[in-house]
Structure prediction request, 347 residues.
Amino acid sequence: MKRIVLSTYLILSALLLFAQSSIQAKIDPIEMLIGEQAQVTLTVQANDNANIEWPKLQPRQMLVPGVEIIGTQHPDAHTMLITLTSFDGSLYHLPAFNVKVDGKELKSSDLALKVVEMEVDTTQLNKMFPPKDVQDNPFDWHDWSLSFWLSILLLLLVALTYYLYVRLRAGKPIITHIKIVKRLLPHQKAMKEIEQIKADKMVASENQKEYYTKLTDTLRRYIEERYGFSAMEMTSSEIIGRLMASGDQQSLNELTQLFMTADLVKFAKYSTLINENDQNLVNAIDFINQTKLENQPTEETIKPQLSAEDQRSQKERRLLKLFIAGLAVAGVALFCYIIYNVYQLLV
Prediction:
C-alpha cells in the first residue's frame, strides 16, 4: 500500500513539474570579432494558449554598455530572436531576460559574450599599406552611348528649329486689317443728296434738265439700295413696274408723275414751272419717307479679299509655325530626358 501511494505521488509531482512554465536562453556564437553579429534565442516552454509578454527591446538600443541591439524577431509564439553586435573588444555580461507567462514573471539565465579585437602584427610594418583613395568606376561606353546619340539628335533639332525660324522671319507676313466703317442708310444718303440739291438752289435754276437728272438719279440710287435691283440701268417705266408689287399706290402715282416729268424735260425739252419743280421735290421726299427702313445696322465690316497666292502663303506660314512649335516641345522633352539619364549615371 505504501508503494502505491509513493508511486502516485511521484507521478503527480512529475506531471506538475512538466506543467510548470520555464524559459531558456542561449547565445550563438559566444565569441565574435568586432562588428560581427551574435544571436540570443529565448525559448518559453508553456501551454499553447499561454499569454506571453516578451521584453520590449528596440533597434539601436544598448543592451549593456558596448553591446547594441540590431533587431528582434519572433519566428513563432514561443520563441524570440535578438540580434546583437559590438564594436568594442571585451567580455560582456548579459543580464537575465524577464518574460511574463500568464502574468507570472520568469527570468532566463545570464549570458556572456566575448568580443575579440583584430590582432595586428606591428613587428612587420612593411606589410602594412595605407588606405586607398576613392576610385572611380571605369568608363563604360555602353552606359553613355544612349545619352551621346540623344545629344547629337538634340543638336540637330536645335539647328533645324533655328533654320526654320530664320526662314519664317525672312518671309514677309501677310497682314490683313478688317475695317469697320460707318455707313449711311439708303434713305439717309438720299435725303443728304436732296438737301444738297436744295442748297444749290437747283429748283429755281434755269437748267431744268440738270435738276431733274440729279433728282431722278438720287431716287434711282435710293431704290437700288432699298429694293435690291439695278434701278440705275432701267428705264422709268421698268422701275415703276418693279415697284408696283411692293409700293404704296399713292406714292407710286406721285413717283410716276415725277419720272414722266423728268423724261419730258430731259428728252423732249419740256419746260416746267417753279411750283411744279417744288412739288416734284416734295413728292421725292414723301416717297423716301414712306418707303424707308428704320433700325438698320449703321456699321459695315469690310474684310479684305486675299489673292490665291496670298492665301497659300498664309497657310504655309501657319503650318511652319506649328512645325517649329512641335520641334521646340520635342527638343525640351529630349533635353530633360538626357539630363535625367546623365544624373542616373553619375549618382
The helical segments are 2-19, 141-170, 186-199, 208-227, 236-243, 249-267, 274-291, 308-346.
